[in-house]
Specification:
By secondary structure, the protein is mostly helical. It folds into 2 domains: about 1-65; about 65-130. Helices cover about 80% and strands about 0% of the residues. The protein contains 4 helices and no strands. The protein has helices at about 5-30, 35-60, 70-100, 105-125. Helix 1 packs antiparallel against helix 2 and helix 3 runs antiparallel to helix 4 (about 105-125). The chain is globular and about 40 Å long.
Length: about 130
C-alpha cells in the first residue's frame, strides 16, 4: 500500500480544525449560553463532523470530487457510518483507560490518537473512495 503523506497531513490539519470547532462550540454553548454540557457536546460533535466532511471534500480528497449531489449525499451517508464507528471506538478506548486510572483528558487524547489511522483508512477506502 502506497502512503500519500500530503493527504495524511491534510487529513490531520482538517481534523485539528474540527477539534477546535468542537471545543469552541462546547465552550460557547455551555459557558456563554448556559446549555447543558451534554447537549452542547452533542451539537458540537455534529458541527465538527460536518466541518470535517466539508474540509475533507474540499482539501484532503480534492482529487476525488463527488459526481453530483446524489454522490455527495451517498458520500455523506458513508461518512456518518464511519464517524459513528469511530466515536464508538473512541468511547470504548477512553472508558477502558479511565477505568485503568488514566485522567479523562489523557484517556481521550490517547483514544483520538489510536483512532487516527483507522479513521484515515475508513475515509480513504469507504467514504472518499474512487467512484465507479
Amino acid at each position: 500500500m502506497r502512503v500519500n503523506f500530503r493527504r495524511w497531513g491534510v487529513f490531520n490539519l482538517v481534523g485539528f480544525g474540527g477539534f477546535a470547532t468542537q471545543i469552541g462550540t462546547i465552550a460557547l454553548l455551555a459557558r456563554y449560553f448556559g446549555w447543558p454540557p451534554f447537549a452542547a457536546t452533542a451539537l458540537a460533535l455534529e458541527l465538527a463532523a460536518l466541518q470535517n466532511f466539508i474540509g475533507h471534500n474540499r482539501w484532503t480528497w480534492r482529487d476525488r470530487p463527488a459526481g453530483g449531489w446524489r454522490e455527495w449525499l451517498r458520500r455523506y451517508w458513508r461518512y456518518q457510518i464511519a464517524k459513528t464507528a469511530s466515536l464508538a471506538a473512541n468511547l470504548a478506548i477512553t472508558s477502558l483507560l479511565i477505568h485503568a486510572g488514566f485522567p479523562a483528558e489523557l484517556a481521550n487524547t490517547i483514544a483520538v490518537l489510536a483512532c487516527a489511522i483507522p479513521n484515515y483508512l475508513l475515509s480513504e477506502r469507504l467514504v472518499f473512495r474512487h467512484s465507479s
